[in-house]
Design brief:
about 95% helix; single chain
Length: about 170
Amino acid sequence: MSGFSAETIVTLLVAALGGGALSALVSGVFNRRKARAEAEATVAISFKSLSDAQQCRLEQQQSRIEQLECHLQEERKRHDALEAQMHSLQQQLGERGALVAELREDNTRLSAENQALRAKMTVMQAEMESLRKDVAEMPELRRQIEALQEQLAEVQRARRSPARRAEMVPKGE
């Protein structure tokens, strides 16, 4: 360095750096602590805000879990009731199935009885028709009976009369 001495250079450096740099250096050291404190305060506030938000969410989720557990208990009770009802209905269905089978057997038996009674009724109707024909013939039979009764009466009167008795007695006796 040709024209500047070491002292001049140091003086220039101190003057250049000393005024602004020294003040910047001193400001930087003091501001660094302040910036750190502000950053830590910002982090603490952010952490607190996030913590509060998470706490709120946690409480909401716990409340929701409690509601869901209550709902689950209700659904379990409903499920148990439906299971009991289903069991009862299955039992009734089994009983009704047995009843239906019994009724079918009764129906088969009664159908056979009905068929037998119909056959008897057909026979009875034929007999009844025969009796009706006989009843229709009764006036004629009555007339015949009356005619026979008249003949019998004549025979009996003739037996009582002496002249007729002689006619009735066989000859040769």
